[in-house]
Amino acid sequence: MFFERPGGGERAILVHLDGQDPEAREDPQEFQELARSAGAETVAFVSVPRHQFTAKYLIGSGKVSELHDRVRAEQVELVIFNHTLTPSQERNLERAFECRVLDRTGLILDIFAQRARTHEGKLQVELAQLEHMSTRLVRGWTHLERQKGGIGLRGPGETQLETDRRLLRVRIRQIRQRLDKVRSQREQARRGRTRANIPTVSLVGYTNAGKSTLFNALTTSDVYAADQLFATLDPTLRRLELDDLGPVVLADTVGFIRHLPHKLVEAFRATLEESSNSDLLLHVIDAHEPERDAQIEQVIAVLDEIGARELPMLEVYNKLDLLEGIEPQIQRDAEGKPQRVWVSARDGLGLELVKQAIAELLGDDLFVGTLCLPQKLARLRAQFFELGAVQSEGHDEQGGSLLAVRLPRAELNRLVSRAGMQPVEFIEQHTLQ
């Protein structure tokens, strides 16, 4: 670390600021869940009624003195605030408490650092941590603030603080370059799936809504799933076969949370792009959560930030086993399209309904059938093969090609129109029923 700071620990006091603007107010229960997920041993939960913040400590000096006494009495090693602290507030509080101080962003970053398992995930977490740390380097090295003169004390011409900033900038640039490479690799993989006409379905939702449990139940996978916040950090892709539709790629992604730090959204853009480039989003919702409406709004806000707000979406209300009087079902809109599905991923209830709803939503714009193409349409036949839309080929008695094709209807119409024919007439004339 670049700071002369007290070492971190697990015995913690949680400080929640109450009486704020409802838009900025954090959920105290969610705050305690975050601390538990990070591995903190909560010694005390302190709710501070504040309507106006102070520039020095965020909270009043009287409450700072009270917390200092409590830190000494309880031998606490860490004080966590359920609010964003400025770098100067964080340093002032550490000096006053004589222990480590962490804000909400730092807590979430710590959880992400514990959960990252893949090389890409670790890079993304490191990038977010370094960018967060770069704002806290000011006066971090109090004993090396000034260049020293004299024999044996002359430096290379820059203070330690300047050196640290330069090293941070270099490392951040290196990580960004690696993540750009990851982004291009993901984009290449997506183009390959597009050429093969394999739709992508992404699971999105609030953290701990049950996305990984649903993912495992649908794909018979063993992705890590637990009753804790941010259990899943690294994206996972699996193939899922659906009746009357064929294969789709199902993607499990990182969960969202209220006031998700912007640094994390930026750092995980390569991962979140998996959602923004999907053909369908499965918005997994904890049906048993009292604050579910607020959580839905937060998910929509993050989807808007990553450019995925307008994508087709199916709501999946999970944890049906915790509710009474509601059976697994598909609810439809005025046009008869699936709008939401009620399931229990843990007990395996309603999984077939989820698959049915996905197939209905993706199958609307998909043409699946056998085309009988005479020899004069050999060029059109070649174009179907180039797109990877041909699943099998046979021949009729006249030497024509019998192509079992599967591709988006818009793509079929485009190819047929370029061949100089009317799409509707062509399909009626050349499709084998």
Write the layout of secondary structure elements.
Blueprint: E1 11-18, H1 28-38, E2 41-49, H2 61-74, E3 78-81, H3 87-97, E4 100-102, H4 104-115, H5 119-134, H6 160-195, E5 200-205, H7 211-219, E6 236-242, E7 246-252, H8 262-267, H9 269-276, E8 280-286, H10 292-305, E9 313-318, E10 329-332, E11 338-342, H11 351-363, E12 366-373, H12 378-386, E13 390-395, E14 401-408, H13 409-418, H14 423-430, E15 431-432
CATH topology of the largest domain: Rossmann fold
Largest sheet: 7 strands, mixed
* Count of DSSP H/I helices: 14
- Computed CA radius of gyration, to the nearest angstrom: 28 Å
Percentage of residues in strands? 15-25%
- Care to count the β-strands? 15
The name of the CATH architecture of the largest domain is 3-Layer(aba) Sandwich
Share in helix: 40-55%
What shape does the CA trace take?
elongated
Neighbour order of strands in the largest sheet: 6-7-5-8-9-11-10
CATH homologous superfamily grouping of the largest domain: P-loop containing nucleotide triphosphate hydrolases
Please, what is the average pLDDT? 80
Keywords: Coiled coil, Cytoplasm, GTP-binding, Magnesium, Metal-binding, Nucleotide-binding
Family: Belongs to the TRAFAC class OBG-HflX-like GTPase superfamily. HflX GTPase family.
Domain Hflx-type G: 199-366
Function: GTPase that associates with the 50S ribosomal subunit and may have a role during protein synthesis or ribosome biogenesis.
